[in-house]
Amino acid sequence: MASVSAASVAFRALSKPPLKSNETSRLKIVSLGWRKNGFPSLRSSRLHVSCAAKPETVDKVCEIVRKQLALPAEADLTPESKFSAIGADSLDTVEIVMALEEEFGISVEEESSQNITTVQEAADLIEKLVQKKPEA
Amino acid sequence: MIEPVENSYSFSDREAHLWYVVPDEVKSSFLLSNYLDILSPCEKENVSRMRGEQLQKAALLARVLVRTTIARYQINGQVNPRSLKFKKNIHGKPELEWDDDQCQCASRLQFNISHTSSLILCGVTVDSPIGVDLEEKQRKLKNNILAFARRYFTPHEVKFLSSISDPVVQHQHFVKLWTLKESYVKALGRGFSGLPFRMFTIQFRTTENGDSCPSGETNNEGEIIVKSLEDVNSFSSNWQFALLELAGSHYAAICMEKDEAVEGEVPTPMKLTVRKTIPYVRDELISGPDAAVISGLT
Question: Which of A35, A36, B65, B213 is deepest in the core (most CB within 10 A)?
Fold first, then answer.
């Protein structure tokens, strides 16, 4: 499973019917490995069946998180970085959510805040909420 | 009253014991490596996942403080801090987990923890659910205070903050409100996502007129009460609050469940005993400016 190449998984996602949820999670594990090996273009929704964030969204979230936590430029921040592991407390997380609401024009229920523990989770939630918005 | 075998940390009625560590005062790598030995494998893993030495140290000290503090309140002989087991409730609040054969008294211990990068606090009670929250007094918001309050707090609290013209005092009261609200949802075991902050109001009630008013530098701002917004006429009167200034640098909010008051009797006020510690090295009973009561212990 771990040795599936980039090209073959991408092909699979395009040509086969929707994958079952356990297969989706297998893909996620593989794609994390690729990120570490430096294939940033594969960090896209081709590898996930359900709505997942565009790279621009992820980047924007990273930018907001960096600003909120005043991370030094050399600090490593990946989509999988846990907010708590990079020093965010509950007030930081709430401020991050507020900044995301303003940036993306969405409204995040407080109940969802426990699901926003990483950049990726925040970005995924944003995409979901943005898609739900009525046409302007 | 629970009286441990060695040191006499006994609880009188309605008492919470607060223990705090100042990470900057813990410098010995020998001590820190011994501390690491106290943690469970899972806790060690969590510590190692923190990015950077300071965050790892704070995470380590937080677990050490919880384990060693609870172990002090021995019921049946020595309790090894390493042997303590923890679980989480449905909302993620950490709780002690006891084997069936352990003394039932032990299961009456309640605790809660909070930390900033510069202070770690653990509160312990017997029987009463407790929530504690710490924040640096100087903690700055990236957002505008009133914009933040409008988004997350109640209209009453927004009005309260808006009425304070001095931005320094307004900022102080914002931080106090935040810690009090956090301490409440932590005491309830529900956390921020389990009980949104706009669902309940914290009020400072002065003894003279019963209206909340923004106090400045007075020593005792009277009683702190919480009102549920779901039932506007009810006070959530089961919960008592205290607000302290700790170590000169932090606000600490404590929330405890009250005893059922007998009709006509004044409920027993909360008592707090504050100690600063470096586990296995030094304990210090703290009073005076390092643990200055702001409100709630009338």
Answer: B65
- pLDDT of residue A13 exceeding 50, the answer is no
Q: Give the ranges where chain A is alpha helix by DSSP (H).
A: 6-15, 21-37, 55-69, 90-104, 119-132
In terms of Cα–Cα distance, which of B238, B288, B296, B247 is closest to B269?
A: B296
Q: Which two tokens stand for residue A30?
A: 């593989």
- The distance from CA A50 to its chain's CA centroid, rounded to whole angstroms, is 12
- Amino acid at position B205, single letter: R
- With contact defined as beta carbons under 8 Å apart, do A65 and A121 qualify? no
pTM, rounded to two decimals: 0.81
For residues B149 and B141, what is the distance between their CA atoms, to the nearest angstrom?
11
Q: Identify the weakest region by mean pLDDT among B64-73, B98-107, B141-150.
A: B98-107
Please enumerate, as own/partner, the contacts of B66-70 that have beta carbons within 8 Å and a separation of 24 or more: B66/B94, B66/B111, B66/B113, B66/B122, B67/B38, B67/B39, B68/B38, B68/B277, B68/B279, B68/B280, B69/B19, B69/B111, B69/B122, B69/B124, B69/B277, B70/B96, B70/B109, B70/B111, B70/B124
Say if B182 is an interface residue toward chain A (CB within 8 Å).
yes
Please count the residue pairs, one from chain A and one from chain B, whose beta carbons lie less than 8 angstroms apart: 57
Q: Does A31 touch chain B (CB under 8 A)?
A: no
- Mean pLDDT, chain B, whole residue set: 85
Is A98 close to B135, i.e. CB distance below 8 A?
no
Give the three-class secondary structure for A1.
coil
Q: Would you say residue A23 has pLDDT above 70?
A: no
Amino acid identity of B101?
Answer: D
- For residue B183, what is the nearest residue in chain A, using CA coordinates? A90
Per residue in B220-235, pLDDT tens? 557 898 988 876 555 5
- Using a CB–CB cutoff of 8 Å, tell me whether B138 touches chain A: no
